[in-house]
Design brief:
about 170 residues; alpha+beta; two-stranded antiparallel ribbon; 4 helices; globular
Length: about 170
């Protein structure tokens, strides 16, 4: 699966979730390109036009075993909420972030299957259409202060999608 697919999928999630409502004019989504550069996290939240945001991190991954040819990138979703920095504010920001992340996971579960709209039309979920499944074991961690007063939670999981490992002689100069 391509990074473009992942970027577009999660940006769409951020745009459609009521608590985030990402738009070009009021950004609330950012793709972290270098997770080892902590300044990028600070710069990301400085660019936000809303008090709650979703940051996407596409980490390392792996290709499955011989009998299970899967592309398996590790995905990090970080929801941050701006707060006053007090203990109560931090606790509230992290609780809010966890609730938002649970809503995102429920949307991902829906997008991994078929469903029907209000008029009864059959819809193939975006993840199912892309042949993507994700691990149900999701790890979460607390986000410490980002740019001084943004706190939240991070969820980590793996996406899995088929990858073509068929040898093609036409790809090689012999």
């Amino acid at each position: 699966m391509s990074e473009q697919f992942l970027d577009e999928y999660f940006e769409n999630i951020a745009a459609k979730l009521k608590e985030i409502q990402h738009t070009e004019n009021e950004p609330a989504f950012y793709r972290i390109t270098d997770p080892y550069n902590l300044d990028e996290f600070d710069d990301a939240v400085k660019s936000m036009g809303k008090p709650v945001c979703l940051l996407l991190e596409i980490g390392d991954g792996e290709i499955g075993e011989w009998d299970s040819q899967k592309d398996m990138p590790r995905i990090g979703l970080h929801v941050l909420a701006k707060c006053d920095g007090s203990r109560a504010g931090i606790r509230q920001a992290r609780d809010q972030a966890k609730e938002i992340l649970l809503k995102i996971v429920s949307r991902m579960r829906r997008d991994a299957q078929d469903h029907w709209d209000d008029q009864g039309a059959h819809i193939i979920g975006a993840l199912k259409a892309a042949k993507v499944v994700f691990s149900t074991a999701i790890k979460f961690t607390n986000m410490t202060a980002v740019d001084g007063n943004w706190y939240g939670k991070s969820f980590w999981f793996e996406f899995k999608a088929p990858v073509n490992l068929v040898y093609n002689e036409g790809d090689w100069i012999e």
